[in-house]
């Protein structure tokens, strides 16, 4: 089976392919899968994300940008901010995660739904190659959080365990809810506005991690110059219900416009 997949990976994607970028992104995940740190379930999750990305038009929409401002404000105001990474996030956005963590002074923690010592080690190694140490490895002191079962309970005692603000991306709803129950402010990057994660998070960024982390780095550079009072104001006036509502309305409006647009039909070139 692996041989078949390996052969498929090396098929050259022509740069003039209309979906070149999307195909390159898929390749990154397949590479991560072959390297053994992206799980097959992660590939399925990506397909789900792509479907929602079509619905928002594969761009950062206004409600997502609004959520990013609140999220960056929360990270900058936090005492112990942590960015949680899994296989998909490492495959798609590792350099931007590192950059954002630097800008907001956050720790990075490997936290896996399908945790195995080997996957943790491989993801940590990706960061180490870039000169960055991460929390949540088996060398780290691990604490258990209530609410979740078995391996999924393990978090770093210096990281998520004591964090007041946790950023999760491409995360499972159950874990997002568990973090909220522990009283943490949870920022989620999730393309599906209807997922449990999107609905349980304190701040939901409905955007692709490929765009979202990059954009948040820019926003962090901007907000770092502003007085603390202004950051508090951005955070305290933020309303996540409004964000989710506006994302759904955006999708409705967009689909209606598309339905009425004759250009929807692609004529053969
Ligand atoms: P939930 O558990 O939150 O109800 P789920 O079970 O459908 O959601 P999970 O596999 O637990 O999905 O979480 C993955 C989430 O990440 C999905 O909502 C998916 O749409 C989203 N996702 C996948 N790829 C990306 C991406 N590249 N950027 C942002 N979000 C993504
Ligand atoms: Mg899930």
* Radius of gyration over C-alpha positions, nearest whole angstrom: 19 Å
How many angstroms separate the termini? 36 Å
- What is the number of helical segments per DSSP (H or I, 4+ residues)? 11
Number of strands: 7
- Read across the widest sheet, the strand sequence of neighbours is 2-1-5-6-7
CATH architecture field of the domain at 62-248: 3-Layer(aba) Sandwich
Describe the structure.
By secondary structure, the chain is an alpha/beta fold. It has a domain at 62-248: Phosphopantoate/pantothenate synthetase (Rossmann fold, 3-Layer(aba) Sandwich), CATH 3.40.50.12640. 54% of the residues lie in helices and 10% in strands. The protein is built from eleven helices and seven strands. It has helices at 2-9, 20-35, 40-56, 62-77, 87-104, 117-128, 173-181, 196-200, 209-223, 228-236, 240-259; strands spanning 81-85, 107-110, 142-144, 154-156, 165-169, 185-189, 203-205. Strands 2-1-5-6-7 form a five-stranded parallel β-sheet, with helices on both faces. The protein has a two-stranded antiparallel ribbon with strand order 3-4. Helix 2 packs across helix 5, helix 4 packs across helix 9 (209-223) and helix 5 crosses helix 6. The chain is globular. The two termini are 36 Å apart. The model has no long low-confidence stretch (mean pLDDT 94). Residues 45-46, 48-49, 52, 92, 170-173, 189-192, 195-197, 208-209 line the site of adenosine-5'-triphosphate.
């Amino acid at each position: 089976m692996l041989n078949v997949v390996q052969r498929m990976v090396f098929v050259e994607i022509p740069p003039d392919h209309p979906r070149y970028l999307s195909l390159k992104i898929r390749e990154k995940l397949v590479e991560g899968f072959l390297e053994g740190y992206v799980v097959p379930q992660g590939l399925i999750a990506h397909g789900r994300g792509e479907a929602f990305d079509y619905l928002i038009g594969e761009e950062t929409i206004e409600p997502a940008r609004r959520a990013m401002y609140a999220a960056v404000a929360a990270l900058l105001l936090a005492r112990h901010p942590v960015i949680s990474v899994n296989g998909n996030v490492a495959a798609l956005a590792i350099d931007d995660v590192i950059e954002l963590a630097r800008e907001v002074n956050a720790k990075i923690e490997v936290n896996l739904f399908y945790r195995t010592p080997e996957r943790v080690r491989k993801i940590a190694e990706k960061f180490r190659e870039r000169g960055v140490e991460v929390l949540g490895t088996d060398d780290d002191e691990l604490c258990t959080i209530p609410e979740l079962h078995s391996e999924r309970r393990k978090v770093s005692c210096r990281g998520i365990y004591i964090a007041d603000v946790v950023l999760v991306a491409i995360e499972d709803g159950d874990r997002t809810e568990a973090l909220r129950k522990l009283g943490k402010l949870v920022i989620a990057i999730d393309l599906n506005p209807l997922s449990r994660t999107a609905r349980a998070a304190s701040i939901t960024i409905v955007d692709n991690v490929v765009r979202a982390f990059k954009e948040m780095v820019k926003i962090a550079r901007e907000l770092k110059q502003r007085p603390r009072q202004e950051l508090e104001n951005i955070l305290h006036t933020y309303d996540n219900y409004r964000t989710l509502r506006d994302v759904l309305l955006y999708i409705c409006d967009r689909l209606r416009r598309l339905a009425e647009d004759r250009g929807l039909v692609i004529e053969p070139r």
